[in-house]
Amino acid sequence: MNKIKSFILDLIFPNRCPICSEFISFDSNICQKCKESLDKFTADGICPVCGKLECICSENIYYDRAAVCFFYENEVRTGILSLKDGHKEFGNFLGNMLAQKISADIIMQNADFIIPVPMSKEGLRERGYNQAEVIAKEISDKTGIDIKNDILYKNSSEVQHSLNIEQRHKNVSAFCINNVTLTGKRIILCDDVITTGSTVNKCAQLLKSRGADSVYAAAGATTKLKKEG
Are 149 and 181 in contact (CB under 8 A)? Predict the structure, then answer.
């Protein structure tokens, strides 16, 4: 039924590649040319724990493992910005890639559930959806790992990617956790980009404060520099 609906909508609103804007089939998320161009941005050489090229594991990291697809550059950046600008196709593409990584990882594949990094209520109303949840839903659909949205929440309306490094570290205090028991749980924490690592690290700290055994970060992209804004 969803494919039929998508086909009909495509007749009225033709599907376009989120990177180059070329027309693509109704059941595609990205054109083949752009998909091939992303290979040069594959996040090779990153630390398997913190997900950064310049390792930050010595900086009190609370998450235990990371799965990342790309470096946040050029076409990848264009795709992720399109996801934040109302177009979910690139999020579905990233979710599918992350699902493959998680399914092939003997540790992460046994996670109990997925938690998207939350947005504030104000930010959610403005955008209409949480881009991290778009990615997480695709991971869930492909892996069968459930999503939980009622554990973490965010109070501040500050947009993390618009802040400098000092502001980012201060803004993570806006992330909060409900009164839940997570004893022994293995959790995948999903976001679009790992920049300084402060967001996923704070969320992981909160989850472990409620007894979580392991927290794994899953992100579409990571910045190359440890102190990139």
Answer: no
